[in-house]
Amino acid sequence: MTVLDVRGLAKAFGGVRAVRGVSFAVRAGEIVAMIGPNGAGKTTCFNLINGQLSPDAGEIALLGRPTAGLAPRAIARLGVGRTFQVAAAFGSMTARENVQLALLAHAGRLGSVFALAPLLEREAADALLARVGMLDQAGRPAAVLAYGDVKRLELALALAGEPRLLLMDEPVAGMAPGERAALMHLASRLAREEGIAILFTEHDMDVVFGHADRVLVLVEGELIADGPPAAVRADPRVRQAYLGAESADA
What we know:
The protein contains nine helices and ten strands. By secondary structure, the protein is an alpha/beta fold.
């Protein structure tokens, strides 16, 4: 089942064409990496998909429903979650309390019940923390958690919105090698077992080629490759795009 369908997506900022006629799809349970040099248009694509930007042209559909032009909150409620390069959580609150608030926000129950938040959604919050291997850290303030655990907590916050599509912006940035593998194995398990479609960007090519089912390559706003990791790695256009570069922006 196709979760995300992007057709002819385009966005310009003044005279700079950040995204030029990009088309691709992501299916349920599929993990797709989007890579490319700095300034290739990856972040712009993400911001178009989750509604932070409006496209100049093209179509975006989530489970067959057009989303272009909808506000980010409306798109999130349709099932699009996102994690960011720099993990963020309320440092003074415990891991459990952070997830409780995310659950309440998703249910539209903040405001009048804010003072009661510590008493609400406790079981659901603990279940989400268990899904990401963080239940044993539930009572600890986010400010004292190791960075890898904060990244796991951020994933739990994204899952609180019951996403069908999860956008992960450089998910392993700042993590130690062992933590990187553990987080990507966790993301892979969520995709396989729960049918969540995952689209991620990443600098670490070992992570990209070790965990993605498909790889999309953007260069100067254009999609130049879309296929299995081995085929993309061997593509002459991709090799030329990275010629002389020590790292590829993902």
